[in-house]
Amino acid sequence: MKNILTISGSARTGSANRQLLEHLPVLFPELDFHLYEIAELPLFVDDAERTVIPEPVEEWRRSIQKAQAVIISTPEYVHNIPAILKNALEWVYATGEMAGKKILPIVFTPKPPRGDKAMQSLLFTLTALEAQVVASLQLYQEDWNDQNRKTDAEEMIRAAIDLL
Questions:
Q1: Secondary structure element (H or E) that encloses residue 159, with its range
Q2: Residue 58 has what pLDDT?
Q3: Would you call the peptide bond into 82 cis, given omega within 30 degrees of 0 as the criterion?
Q4: 73 and which of 5, 13, 17, 52 could share a cystine (Cβ 3.0–4.6 Å)?
Q5: Is 27 helix (H, G, I), strand (E, B) or coil?
Q6: Phi and psi for 144 in degrees, rounded to 5?
Q7: Residue 7 half-sphere exposure, CB side, CA atoms within 13 Å?
Q8: What are the sequence ranges of the domains in the chain?
Q9: Please, what is the average pLDDT of the chain?
Q10: How far is Cα 106 from Cα 157, in angstroms, rounded to an integer?
Q11: What is the 3-state secondary structure (H, E, C) of 117-158?
Q12: pTM > 0.85: yes or no
């Protein structure tokens, strides 16, 4: 069973991005999804003299290493990815856990055209991390039905997940 780490770019309770990620095991019961709580990570400070890495950061790095692939679903805040997501990604820049890792970035926003700039920013960051982006999806909350599933995108999501 493929082990997939999922990351919500929003720490907000009831976040649509979190709901989307929590719905993936329903759509894909054959896969093993693990949602990581990036809100637990301390603020990244690039300190070359740091001798002790905080335990939440060590756990974050181990979670990425153990995963066969990563799915990131994020909203767009102020034409960018949320600071909490950028913070999490900065913790793995110098140590390389994302290098070569298969990644599916998803930007999930209320309606078009929102999300373009967040996706661009996320792709720039994933390139800097040397991640292997297999596909990228922009999904919109207004297109989901009462079961919190996008009626016309399930096949797109399935095709993208098959690339992981």
A1: helix 154-162
A2: 97
A3: no
A4: 17
A5: helix
A6: -95, 150
A7: 27
A8: 3-162
A9: 92
A10: 10
A11: HHHHHHHHHHHHCCCEECCCEEEEHHHECCCCCECCCHHHHH
A12: yes
According to CATH, what is the number of the domain 3-162? 3.40.50.360
State the average pLDDT over residues 87-94.
97
CA dist., res. 66 & res. 122, Å (int):
22
Cα–Cα–Cα angle for 96, 52, 90, rounded to 5 degrees: 35
Token duo for residue 60: 């974050």
Q: Is 68 helix (H, G, I), strand (E, B) or coil?
A: coil
Signed CA dihedral, 63, 65, 66, 71: sign only: positive
C-alpha span between 9 and 113 (Å, rounded): 19
Which run of H or of E encompasses 106? strand 102-109
Token pair in block for residue 19 = 């709901």
Q: Which two tokens stand for residue 105?
A: 């970035």
